[in-house]
Amino acid sequence: MTEALADPRPRLAIVPGDPTGIGPELAARILTNPDMWRLARFLVVGDARVMAMGAQQAEVSLSLRSIANGEGAAAAIREAETAGEVPMIDLGNLDPSRFTLGQASAEVGGEVGATLAAAVELARAGIVDGVTFTPLNKQAMFRGGWQFPDEHKLFAHLLGFKGLFSEMNVLDGQWMTRVTSHVSLREAVEQITPARIRDALTLADTTMRRAGIAEPRIAVAALNPHAGEGGLFGREEIDIIAPTVREMAARGIRCDGPFPSDTVYLKAFEGHYDSVLAMYHDQGQIATKLRGFNRGVTITAGLPTVFTTPAHGTAYDIVGRGIADPGATESAVRLAARLAGKTSLDGPGTQATGLVDAQT
Amino acid sequence: MTEALADPRPRLAIVPGDPTGIGPELAARILTNPDMWRLARFLVVGDARVMAMGAQQAEVSLSLRSIANGEGAAAAIREAETAGEVPMIDLGNLDPSRFTLGQASAEVGGEVGATLAAAVELARAGIVDGVTFTPLNKQAMFRGGWQFPDEHKLFAHLLGFKGLFSEMNVLDGQWMTRVTSHVSLREAVEQITPARIRDALTLADTTMRRAGIAEPRIAVAALNPHAGEGGLFGREEIDIIAPTVREMAARGIRCDGPFPSDTVYLKAFEGHYDSVLAMYHDQGQIATKLRGFNRGVTITAGLPTVFTTPAHGTAYDIVGRGIADPGATESAVRLAARLAGKTSLDGPGTQATGLVDAQT
Q1: d(Cα B346, Cα B341) in Å, to the nearest integer?
Q2: Which helix (H) or strand (E) is B309 found in, with range?
Q3: Which of A181, A185, A287 sits opposite B234 (nearest CB)?
Q4: Domain final position from B292, B316, B345
Q5: Domain limits at B8?
Q6: B159 and B25 share a domain?
Q7: Residue where a domain terminates, one of B292, B317, B349
Q8: CA gap A138, A130 in Å, rounded
Q9: Nearest CA in chain A to B189
Q10: B105 three-class SS
Q11: Listed residue (A252, A267, A192, A251) closest to A222, CA to CA
């Protein structure tokens, strides 16, 4: 592992997302930003014609070298890097002359899913330490045959992963997660159980530690208004949430609560916590979207492979105009580098934490 | 009504709130602000010693003239005004030497409740057109014998009002209201009915029109994440909310939705709506508290008497330091003047709308 000792940067797969949106432009901007290369090495996974289009949209010059997937890939990647070129697995599956910018397409969605699957395979093979992808069109992917409620469940499926995993949103240094997600509010109330709260706290704690936060401080939101007002507005705080928070705190997770959900996000954004655990989808989403969700990063926490992506979408209204803001994608790369650094073949402690700023 | 024709300003009762907090200081600042007098005339209801303390805290000079409540009150108020003094009903019920600043007291809370009751009586008698009060300590009032879940229910009780009324929060030009309030989330889900949504839309529309908004645009929030995602995450949007919104739109209320609750507040604050109707307490409260709840105004909508108050609390941490910000209380006075102007004895159309800015 001489190379690993010489170069502590994790290697990330960059997937240019749905090519009818701003994803290729963002990928091109990332790959031509020297700050990004100080944090990670990259392997592009996608269609070379899509990446050429992205470079043109971004008005940047990008030297890609197509390498063959399979046996000699690792050596070929190193050769490309030595030659100052960006290595790419060219899947040749998305011809820009066959789709229209700003128009969702099931056919394109199908190939985007195949591209993500190829990136997952490269991670499984140990060729990359993590995956950062630019915005997808989830409906197009669904219609294109990848029938998963979200990409997180797709990744778990591709990895054959049966354990605990969850979406997290990272914004302004806050790691937002939740106990329940894409179910009706009625069902969410039913799903508030000690087991689920324990799982969510464990996952949040583990993920933040993996990202280099030594003692993550987690604020737990209440379910009911005024945190139940002493049992007057519901008993879940008294019967379920508070005892579970105490139990997990005794087990060494620095968690606190439950707090009324209409002030807990204020406290967190003021810096009193690193993370808020919501009880249901809209609690966290109302807060983070008002705060500036689009600047944030979405990660899939708990899987053996690191996945990060900007929280914003394909931005069809500005596609091809060369004005896509790469800020959130840069944050996604920083976060993937932090998370992947801990588990890469290079071993712990070698990731370039000094280069990671607080923007994520 | 010669005087009324000569002076279009509504007369507002100013109640200095809980005197252990910043309320008296705020009241003194309001009463010595010429901008406030351009919008309304004031009658202070409280204890003269508390107001003297407030003036000292605010470092302002306040000329109060105590007038006797009862038969000759209206004439005495006009006499005080002619003499350039602020008329006051001195209840003599709160001696500052008998309470400690920054410390809640049941005894004080009891007298604060009595003070509010006196202001309500003055409104019932037609002496004032509305009531603006500075922050209360609700727990102190509760312990002092006024056992109501909130001041809105207290006011309705004092007025003997049996009809439809509700709290509304006004912030940055947005009128926030909700279908359900201080109940468990489980109960809130059960309470989402066409009747309640109709009532809430009607009340919001009526109140905003009364405040001078010609055609209030109301966005209705969904109950479930992603507005139910076409029925996948709950059917309340399809079965209850959407049909009721259509029905009320057909009846002439400019309402729209249901919209996913994690983006509807963004749309509203961008100016696409005047109001958001939440389905439950924390939806609206998470959004408005993050936006800056403390700058906002709380009103009791639907009662025959206008009540407004700053949304923030007694601020025990800064009481007596002379640094209390009167911004939200000024907004509360502006809003009371707008709402009271329409229904005062002076008749419609005479309120000084030109002086009302958009800060509320």
Answers
A1: 8
A2: strand B306-310
A3: A185
A4: B292
A5: 1-171+295-360
A6: yes
A7: B292
A8: 21
A9: A186
A10: coil
A11: A192
- What total number of domains does chain B contain? 2
- Tell whether A149 and A225 lie within a shared domain: no
Task: Give the Cβ contact number of residue A348 at 10 Å.
Answer: 10
Q: Which residue of A lies nearest to B237 if distances are taken between CA atoms?
A: A184
CA distance A174 to B110: 43
Per-residue pLDDT of chain A (360 residues; tens, 9 = 90+): 444 456 889 999 999 999 999 999 999 999 999 999 999 999 999 999 999 999 999 999 999 999 998 888 999 999 999 999 999 999 999 999 999 999 999 999 999 999 999 999 999 999 999 999 999 998 899 999 999 988 999 999 999 999 999 999 999 999 999 999 889 999 999 999 999 999 999 999 999 999 999 999 999 999 999 999 889 899 999 999 999 999 999 999 999 999 999 999 999 999 999 999 999 999 999 999 999 878 999 999 999 999 999 999 999 999 999 999 999 999 999 999 999 984 433 333 333 332 222 233
pLDDT digits (tens, 9 = 90+) for B48-65: 999 999 999 999 999 999
Residues A97 and A76 grouped into a single domain: yes
Interatomic CA distance for residues B62 and B57, integer angstroms: 12
Same domain, residue pair A137 and A182? no
In one-letter notation, the amino acid at residue A52 is A
Inter-chain CB proximity B289 and A262 less than 8 Å: yes
Partner-chain residue, chosen from A234, A285, A291, that has the shortest CB–CB distance to B184: A234
Let me know whether A251 and A118 are in one domain. Answer: no
Q: Which residues of A fall below an 8 Å CB-CB distance to B? A: 181-187, 189, 223-226, 228-229, 232-236, 260-263, 265-266, 280-283, 285-287, 289-291
Residue linked to tokens 């409540």:
B69
What is the ipTM, given to two decimal places?
A: 0.84
